[in-house]
Every structure is written in C-alpha cells, then in structure tokens.
Amino acid sequence: MLNIQYEINKLVNKANSQQLSEVDIARQKALDSLHWVWIGGRERMWKQFSRCKYIKEGDKNTKYFHNIASAGRRSNAIVSLVIQAVQSFDH
After folding, report:
1. Which of 7, 51, 80, 84 has the fewest CB atoms within 10 Å, i.e. the most exposed one?
2. What is the pTM of this model?
3. How far from 53 is each of 39, 50, 65, CA to CA, in Å?
4. Average pLDDT, integer, range 39-55
C-alpha cells in the first residue's frame, strides 16, 4: 500500500510542475483503482471482524450487544419526511 501511495504522490507532484503524458495519466488511473480495491478489502476485513465479535459476544446480553442494538435503532430511525415540498418532523 505504501508503494501505491508513494507512486500516486509522485504523479501528483509531477502534475503540479508539468502536464502529464498519456502514459502517466493511465498509470495514475490504474494506481487509483488499486488504491480503492485495497481500501475496499480493508473495509470488508473490519466488517467481517466485527461480525465475528458480534457472534462471539452478542448472545450473552452484554453491554456490547445492547450498544449494537441501540446503534441499529438510531440508524433506522426516520427523522423527518418531505411530502410535496412540505417538511414535517417526526418526534
């Protein structure tokens, strides 16, 4: 990952001082794609890790389980509705 970031930074610095060639632009696009693939894999790893922890600790009615349930309720809440350009608050 550090090599990808280093190469991207080199191309950005080069672009600041001169116009990039077509080869450099293609290389930058490829490096950006690799960077996003790496980030996506990392996010999937952490999501899977959290699921493992939930399965391991979630069935014990622990503080962890209740925090997860509360977070789910908060993210699923409807705060307001807009119907025909009139906003109504649901409290």
Report:
1. 84
2. 0.43
3. 21, 5, 10
4. 78
